[in-house]
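Running this now, will post back.
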Amino acid sequence: MTITTDGRVPVEDWSAEYGAELERHVTRMLGNVEEARDVVQELWITALRTEPDSGEGSNIRAWLYRVATRRALDVLSARKRHAGLLDARSGELEPDRPPAPDSVFGALSSEAVEGIRGAVRSLPCKQRDAVWLRWIEAKDYETIAERLGCSPESARANVYQGMKKLRIQLAHVWREEVAV
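Update: finished.
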């Protein structure tokens, strides 16, 4: 580990010397200045914790670029994973064309339909509204939050809790009607 004569690791010097070019490099990779700044900040933390061998012939600039590039690739990988999860869920309901509320009921018995309607009616008001807005009207959590007068996190929680209750209450309908 390289330590200056005053007893500190020269990360500040590296930041001054290589910071701007590393930020440009990562910005080109990610296409987002804010994410690039985050990656470069994480790089400096890594440099403080795990400094490269800085003996004769070592190349600090190359090490910094390697770490920054790997971190940027991690961000891109996480972005791709996240997008894949969103794509997988997007097929559940087309946002531009919500289905007619009773269109799915055609294949179910009248007892099952009444059971579903009863289960939805039994939900607490905010959960019922949140589930309706999310799954029938295909609204995002920001819009649901505005309509319910709560935070997006609360809107997400209301949808989750409402769907959880419906899954439990309607498990018998799935077994009897759908999975036959």
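Residues 11-90 form a domain with the Rna Polymerase Sigma Factor; Chain: A fold (CATH 1.10.1740.10). More later if anyone needs it.
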